[in-house]
Amino acid sequence: MKKFLDENFLLRSNTAEILFHEYAAHLPIIDYHSHLPPDQIALNTQFQNLSQIWLQGDHYKWRAMRANGISEEFITGSGSDEEKFMKWAETVPFTLRNPLYHWTHLELNRYFGVDEILSPKSAAHIYQFCNEKLLSPELRVQSILLNQKVEVVCTTDDPLDSLDFHQSLKSQNYSVNVLPTFRPDKSMKAESVFELNQYIDLLESKVGFSIHRFEHYLEALKTRHDFFAEQGCKLSDHGLEQMYSEDFTPKSLENIFSKIRLKQGLGPVEILEFKSALLYHFSIWDDEKGWTQQFHLGALRNNSTRAFNTLGADTGFDSIGDFNQAISLSRFLNRLDSSNQLAKTILYNLNPRDNALFASMCGNFNDGTVPGKMQFGSAWWFLDQKDGIEDQINTLSQLGLLSKMVGMLTDSRSFLSYPRHEYFRRILCNIFAEDIENGDLPRDMDWVGKIVQDICYYNAKNYFGFI
Q1: The whole model's pTM is what?
Q2: What count of Cα atoms within 13 Å lies in the side-chain half-sphere of residue 233?
Q3: Any idea which fold 14-46+141-464 has?
Q4: Kind plus residue range of the DSSP H or E element containing 375
Q5: In terms of Cα–Cα distance, which of 113, 115, 203 is closest to 159?
Q6: What's the gap between Cα 32 and its chain centre?
Q7: N or C: which end of the chain has fewer CB within 10 A?
Q8: Which helix (H) or strand (E) holds 295?
Q9: Could you tell me the residue ranges of all domains in the chain?
Q10: Residue 28, Cβ neighbours under 10 Å: how many?
Q11: Which CATH number applies to 47-139: 3.30.470.20, 3.90.1150.10, 3.40.50.920, 1.10.2020.10?
Q12: Long-range contacts, stretch 118-125, CB < 8 angstroms, 24+ apart
């Protein structure tokens, strides 16, 4: 009987063990998409307790706690850090077969050396032990990244962000390359002209000129896009329900923008035209700079009005959406491809029914200029678990070239999430090993091992062009 979380966790054969331990385990990490707060990296934050570093902002854990009947007081409310940790420990035994069970114990072990199972019985000891370790220099934020062999971290940043903390990190000569990512979702929020006008007013103060016309708005956003590039940015990112690809004209856009500045509501087609135009121009700028554009498609956000009104966005009330993706996605990519202005692109899918759709769509727009130019991105959010990762890998294997995949990312706000790369690598090695064991692939360990290493590290290193 295998022991839980031993050195061969998730590895089902000797072949899998060889692939992981000899080829994958030691590789550095390129975390090309995360939500880590750059201020905490620049300030080299030292967390005072396990709740602060582990529970704050982690809506995966919050959802599980709510499902376990835990009061909001001990999730996002006024409960003390210790009380919140104890409620999480009370929840963990009930997360069996949820990825949180694996992640929780991987993180306790990899960062703190804790081998015990977290439960109400062990909670007090683990909390005290980990809190003491958190006071050591090795568990300050910058040391965490170094100890996890992280080479690059790409944060997620609004065009209005000053990027002061990224500049601070450069001045510190910190060896981990911490770069911004251009995430302009708020600039496209035409369904709320009040919020969008507030955003435009803030943008005016950033760029130093008035924005009364759509062409002014593009000029201002382009200024921020250029500024991000000066700070080393190599990627954009967009969180959308589905791709926007409506036709538009300069005249219609000026009329729409005039209505926005007059705080007049827009119709559904006008909203689509505005979003489509912005998305198109962002993509043109990305291509001009040699950036990679990322599209996270399919989330149905803020489902609970009650929770949104009290807690706000990104607090654990989002879910998988069932949006039609194919036609608008094809139109958007084809519009750019037709003029040879399609940047390197990563498509992340949230609805498992659409895995084959996304993987096959990527194959339509490769052009031979860059290996794996069109990427079916790593399993995302609700699919970022063992079955979801296997499904994404298997679909990409069948409909594209898994060998050119740029691998895993954390997509996390937590500095304790880096074992997710190990998790992915173990699953990947086990998939290849199973095919070898079944005679579906040759037992050429050096070649298969090279492919594993490319997926885990080298493809991303070559694809993004990080300095």
Answers
A1: 0.97
A2: 26
A3: TIM Barrel (3.20.20)
A4: strand 374-376
A5: 203
A6: 8
A7: N
A8: strand 292-297
A9: 14-46+141-464, 47-139
A10: 13
A11: 1.10.2020.10
A12: 118/89, 118/92, 118/93, 119/89, 119/92, 119/93, 120/86, 120/89, 120/90, 120/93, 122/89, 123/85, 123/86, 123/89, 123/90, 124/86
Name the strand (E) or helix (H) holding 150. strand 150-154
Rounded Cα–Cα distance for residues 461 and 441 (Å): 26
Write out the two tokens for 424.
């992915």
Q: Long-range CB contacts (< 8 A, 24+ apart) of 135-142? A: 135/46, 135/48, 139/46, 139/47, 139/111, 140/44, 140/45, 140/46, 141/40, 141/41, 141/43, 141/44, 141/45, 141/46, 141/415, 142/41, 142/44, 142/174, 142/176
| Distance set, CA 140 to CA 49, 249, 282, 417 (Å) | 12, 52, 36, 15
Residue found by looking up tokens 């009370």 in the block: 90
CA angle 322, 324, 327 (to 5 degrees): 165
**Cα 417–chain centre separation:** 12
Ordered per-residue pLDDT tens for the chain, 467 residues: 789 999 999 999 999 999 999 999 999 999 999 999 999 999 999 999 999 999 998 999 999 999 999 999 999 999 999 999 999 999 999 999 999 999 999 999 999 999 999 999 999 999 999 999 999 999 999 999 999 999 999 999 999 999 999 999 999 999 999 999 999 999 999 999 999 999 999 999 999 999 999 999 999 999 999 999 999 999 999 999 999 999 999 999 999 999 999 999 999 999 999 999 999 999 999 999 999 999 999 999 999 999 999 999 999 999 999 999 999 999 999 999 999 999 999 999 999 999 999 999 999 999 999 999 999 999 999 999 999 999 999 999 999 999 999 999 999 999 999 999 999 999 999 999 999 999 999 999 999 999 999 999 999 999 999 86
